[in-house]
TrEMBL record:
Gene3D superfamilies: Alanine racemase, Lyase, Ornithine Decarboxylase, Chain A, domain 1, Mur ligase, C-terminal domain, Mur-like, catalytic domain, MurE/MurF, N-terminal domain
InterPro entries: Ala_racemase (IPR000821), Ala_racemase/Decarboxylase_C (IPR009006), Ala_racemase_C (IPR011079), Ala_racemase_N (IPR001608), Mur-like_cat_sf (IPR036565), Mur_ligase_C_dom_sf (IPR036615), Mur_ligase_cen (IPR013221), Mur_ligase_N (IPR000713)
Record protein name field: Alanine racemase
HAMAP family cross-referenced by the UniProt entry: Ala_racemase (MF_01201)
In-chain residues carrying the UniProt-annotated modification N6-(pyridoxal phosphate)lysine: K490
Organism: Algoriphagus chordae
Pathway(s) it belongs to: Amino-acid biosynthesis; D-alanine biosynthesis; D-alanine from L-alanine: step 1/1
One GO process term, biological-process aspect: D-alanine biosynthetic process
Active-site feature positions: K490 (proton acceptor), Y715 (proton acceptor)
Length: 820
């Protein structure tokens, strides 16, 4: 934080009323998450109310930890905690923003802020790297750009920082004014305008206007003048003196020309005063070229010389800068953060690690933090973080990092270079460990990750955990805060990987999990998942497992009830169960004619506790079945009421699946059962734009071949190229779950942003695509589906549903998880 602040000042800034003020206590840290507290007595805990949880629930626990200052909603009951300093405000999120606004106002060096639909994080990181060669740069960690993320980023600015680069992101109308008020950027960058998150806005134009309002007080605004709507809007809103447009045509402040060459591209920028600068950049794709142009223009505007910009670019790669969780060697888990170069990023990685299920040892592999500023202060904080997260083993690479040796003489091993580290570690010595690998780009820690990750073939399914959280929170907005959520993680969590998904939703605050078979539940329990688990199809043979692992079977017939009840009697135990009522699905479930028998069974078997009663809608996703769904709901109400007459307690009542939540929110009862929607597919078509794709299936090009006219491709000679052309062989086949029905042009993949259609039949482990006219090389990535290829469209193409595509992905495909 830029400046320490007293409790009284906090109350004044946030217009709060203060209880038990201590004059001499200064706050230097602000936390919204109870797990991230380093110096309890110097921390102000801000109790936010979110979809996940109410921060106020953690106050007692934090007080025990030694936290002394709290910012709470005015309705917080202080009687329970008589000695704490409580600052009461009408809205804690707003108060957090006001504190950020205050800290921002103290920072007199340049603040750059980036808005736009795509590329914000990349532009921020690249600009940060180029400026970071000379200056102490503060930047928002990862993509902290929201109503809460921006204030937290501001608190990351310290007094030694010379420039700050912060992102601003909004998802609905009205949000930018709060961010503008905090950020007050001196220099603005508008990356571009896309259609993402359109749902929260009236029109594309209103979205654009809102985003641009961030720059109302900026001295300069950098943008690409080739985007017509953007450039028109900007010229009409801002005085011409502050505009720094760049364009591939002449007439703006910078005119750009691009020449692609074998090493990337040469980018020539001519300024309006006719001075010309040439840069060699290591990319050729349109998006990266756009991003780097924003970065160069911004660096020039901030007074950087062309030479030093070029030097910075030489160290950039179009890297994967996400924080990623990967399966590691011998059942270890790897957190890959090889693009991290500052303390703020390290904290995000540690927090992410803290949320994962426990492993045998915690191991940290860390390089020098190539961050300008005060090294003592920085490494002092690193040491405290290491203590807090209780690492068992530390590997340090670089020079400065050796200062950790005296602090951790037992666990620290230092190396002068990454090569030395690689020579000395034996990957086989790791087993069932949690390994966090975090280092600055120049240390090339990719090699370390390579060595320690589980080796599987080139196809991966990447799961975006932020998108998962986004989708979960979206469904929470459709239901009442009191309604519980059961997340269906059957079938390997719809292909996404049951363990990691279950772990993530457990941290997000879901109430229940649903699996298809007992084995799935046992696997979750063995890895430390604590949420209650309902088993849809528990077989009689697995009652022992259910009892041992605390799994709750669904009971769907009088016979099943009887055998479960007598199993409990024989084993002197009780069990919690769920009753499935058949109202039209005709799969499993009690019918009306079974109810009398069921009531008697319930009454005579108190060892069987009814945890819930539910039914399942057969056509909630289709408007034509609306009447039928309503009749199902009516039968359900009658039937469950009849069962309730023999119960002296209240089991949970639930009906709605994802489509049901969207179509019949008025029938949410006590709980909903969320499945496909969480995984990014909105089957009713009502809220399609509100969800984010969570998974991307990717593979790589193994080989490229030029074919003569008339040659054929693959089995049965089904692929033909009448006039010859170029094909690429991909490392994915039907055994990976890439459906054979995509053969012969039914399916396509994206390679460097371009469509390449399947040619010939899909083989077991490979398939071929037509890449004639596309610029590709062996080793390039091919996207099977993801943000830009919708699962629905793919499913339609071969006459199936997204559920099948998701669940078909073989377990041999490596799953990696990341935060974007
Ligand atoms: C799979 C399943 C769900 C979830 O359905 P979605 O359409 O994926 O939301 C809900 N309830 C039951 C009983 C299920 O089997």
């Amino acid at each position: 934080m830029f400046q320490e602040i007293s409790q009284g000042q906090i109350a004044e800034i946030t217009d709060g009323s203060i209880l038990n003020e201590k004059d001499d206590l200064l706050v230097s840290q602000i936390a919204i998450d109870s797990r991230q507290i380093l110096h309890p007595e110097k921390t102000l805990f801000v109790a936010l109310r979110g979809a996940k949880a109410d921060g106020a629930d953690f106050i007692t626990q934090l007080a025990d930890l030694g936290v002394k200052s709290f910012l709470v909603h005015h309705d917080f009951d202080e009687l329970a905690l008589p000695d704490l300093c409580l600052i009461k405000v009408s809205d804690t999120r707003r108060a957090l923003q006001l504190l950020a606004k205050f800290q921002r106002s103290l920072f007199k060096n340049p603040l750059v802020s980036i808005a736009g639909s795509n590329g914000k994080t990349i532009v921020k990181e690249w600009l940060g790297q180029i400026l970071g060669q000379k200056y102490a740069v503060a930047k928002s960690p990862k993509s902290y750009n929201s109503q809460v993320g921006v204030p937290l980023s501001i608190f990351g600015i310290e007094s030694y920082h010379q420039v700050a680069i912060l992102e601003a992101g909004i998802s609905k109308a009205g949000e930018m004014s709060a961010l503008e008020e905090i950020l007050k950027p001196n220099l603005g960058i508008f990356t571009n305008l896309g259609t993402a998150h359109q749902e929260g806005f009236e029109s594309l134009e209103s979205k654009l206007k809102e985003k641009l309002s961030l720059f109302s007080d900026s001295n300069f605004l950098i943008y690409c003048a080739d985007q017509k709507e953007v450039s028109e809007q900007i010229s009409s809103l801002f005085p011409v003196e502050k505009l720094i447009g760049w364009s591939d045509r002449a007439g703006d402040e910078f005119t750009r020309s691009v020449k692609v060459n074998p090493k990337g591209a040469r980018l020539i920028l001519m300024k309006s005063d006719l001075s010309t600068h040439t840069f060699q950049v290591p990319f050729t794709d349109v998006a990266s070229l756009e991003n780097i142009t924003h970065v160069i223009v911004a660096a020039m505007t901030l007074g950087q010389s062309a030479e030093s910009i070029q030097e910075g670019i030489a160290h950039l790669k179009s890297v994967d800068m996400r924080l990623t969780l990967k399966p590691g060697i011998n059942d270890s888990l790897l957190i890959d953060d090889t693009y991290n170069n500052d303390l703020a990023g390290l904290k995000v990685a540690l927090d992410f690690m803290g949320q994962q299920r426990p492993k045998r040892h915690k191991i940290l592999i860390l390089s020098d933090l190539l961050q300008q500023g005060s090294p003592e202060k920085i490494y002092e904080e690193v040491a405290e973080l290491i203590k807090k997260y209780q690492f068992d083993q530390l590997y340090g690479v670089g020079k400065e990092i050796f200062c950790l040796e005296k602090e951790f003489p037992e666990s620290f091993k230092g190396f002068g270079s990454t090569e030395e580290l690689l020579k000395s570690i034996d990957p086989e010595s790791f087993a069932n460990d949690m390994i966090l690998i975090t280092g600055a780009r120049v240390f090339g820690f990719e090699e370390v990750v390579n060595r320690l990750q589980q080796r599987i073939h080139g196809t991966t399914l990447e799961i975006n955990l932020n998108a998962l959280t986004h989708n979960y929170n979206f469904y929470k907005t459709l239901i009442s805060p009191k309604t519980k959520v059961m997340v269906m993680v059957k079938a390997f969590a719809y292909g996404g990987g049951a363990l990691e998904i279950a772990n993530q939703i457990q941290t997000m605050g879901a109430d229940y999990l649903g699996v298809a078979f007992s084995d799935e539940g046992v696997a979750l329990r063995k890895q430390g998942i604590k949420l209650p688990i309902m088993v849809l199809n528990a077989m009689q043979e697995s009652f022992g497992l259910c009892s041992e692992f605390d799994l709750e079977p669904v009971v769907f017939s009088p016979e099943f009830f009887e055998s479960l009840a007598s199993w409990c009697t024989v084993h002197h135990t009780s069990m919690r169960i769920h009753l499935d009522i058949d109202t039209g699905m005709h799969r499993l479930g009690f019918e009306r004619k079974h109810l009398d028998k069921l009531k008697i069974l319930i009454q005579s078997n108190p060892q069987v506790e009814i945890a819930s009663i539910y039914t399942h809608l057969v056509g909630a996703d289709e408007e034509i079945h609306r009447e039928f769904s309503l009749s199902q709901l009516k039968s359900f109400e009658e039937m469950k009421n009849e069962v309730l007459t023999v119960l002296r307690y209240n089991p949970l009542i639930h009906v709605l699946n994802s489509a049901g939540i969207a179509a019949f929110p008025e029938f949410q009862f006590d709980m909903v059962r969320l499945g496909i929607g969480l995984y990014g597919v909105e089957v009713t078509g009502k809220h399609e734009l509100a969800l984010r794709a969570i998974s991307t299936l990717k593979t790589t090009i193994s080989q490229i071949k030029e074919l003569e006219s008339g040659e054929t491709i693959g089995y049965s000679r089904r692929g033909v190229m009448p006039s010859g052309g170029k094909i690429a062989t991909l490392a994915i086949g039907y055994a990976d779950g890439y459906d054979r029905r995509f053969s012969n042009g039914k399916g396509y993949v994206l390679i460097n942003g371009q469509k390449a259609f399947i040619i010939g039949n899909v083989c077991m482990d490979m398939c071929m695509v037509d890449v004639s006219g596309i610029d590709v090389k062996e080793g390039d990535e091919a996207i099977i589906y993801g943000e830009n290829i919708s699962l629905k469209e793919l499913a339609d193409q071969i006459g199936t549903i997204p559920y099948e595509l998701l669940t078909n992905i073989s377990t041999r495909v490596k799953r990696v998880y990341y935060l974007d």
